[in-house]
Amino acid sequence: NAGVTQTPKFQVLKTGQSMTLQCAQDMNHNSMYWYRQDPGMGLRLIYYSASEGTTDKGEVPNGYNVSRLNKREFSLRLESAAPSQTSVYFCASTDRGRGTDTQYFGPGTRLTVL
Amino acid sequence: QKEVEQNSGPLSVPEGAIASLNCTYSDRVSQSFFWYRQYSGKSPELIMSIYSNGDKEDGRFTAQLNKASQYVSLLIRDSQPSDSATYLCAVNPGNTPLVFGKGTRLSVIA
After folding, report:
1. Are A68 and A32 a contacting pair, CB within 8 Å?
2. Residue A32: which H helix or E strand, with range?
3. Distance between CA A105 and CA A34 in Å, rounded?
4. Which of B41, B86, B90, B96 is the most core-located residue (most Cβ within 10 A)?
5. Is residue B17 classed exposed, middle or buried when 0-12, 13-18 and 19+ CB atoms within 10 A define those classes?
6. Closest in B98, B101, B102 to A103, CB measured
């Protein structure tokens, strides 16, 4: 099992460009999450999907959109990137409601917006 | 608003000592609690979970939970330089996503 995978690992964008961060998990988990992590700010939840077909806003959703493509995949889109979106983005998954709620994280995407 | 508080550190301990990391949370209905370790430039990885009041031991790690005081801690015995990392406390408040603290940076000095 690969666990949670993310692509790309690194990305540099110019202000106003768009891009999609991809996330996939092979653990048959029902819930998936997108976080951003900035120095001194900890992990902040952007969006999550409690189950296939549903998405909900987290703490910092502005400037982002998500798509739960299927049970395995959950993508994060930046429509018009801003320097404030420079961050490390982590995807995570868990099997909530089935006796465990441990979250497993992907390796992260390091995004720089110039 | 659900909050999880941790001392940001850095917490410095000599090699071989016990490192004690603390976390408080605001939501009394929280049922499950987690400690994640994050090395610099890496993603968080789970090291301990605890669901009941009391102590839970796993190797050199002991998690302690006191729901009445809304307090959870992590003890690392015989600390090693390889334990130097940021430790994130996370709380499950119910039917919503985990709430993470901002983490405590631990430095183990050889």
Report:
1. yes
2. strand A31-38
3. 10
4. B90
5. middle
6. B98
Q: Which of residues 37-96 of A touch B (CB under 8 A)?
A: 40-43, 45, 48, 58, 90
The answer to whether A77 touches A18, Cβ cutoff 8 Å, is yes
Omega cis (within 30) before A8: yes
Neighbours of A91 (CB within 10 A): 27
Residues in A closer than 8 angstroms to B103, CB to CB, are 42
Q: Is any Cβ of chain B less than 8 angstroms from the Cβ of A108?
A: yes
Q: Residue A106 has what DSSP assignment?
A: -
| pLDDT one-digit tens code per residue, B27-80 | 888 888 999 999 999 999 999 999 999 999 999 999 999 999 999 999 999 999
Strand duo B19-25 + B4-6: pairing: antiparallel
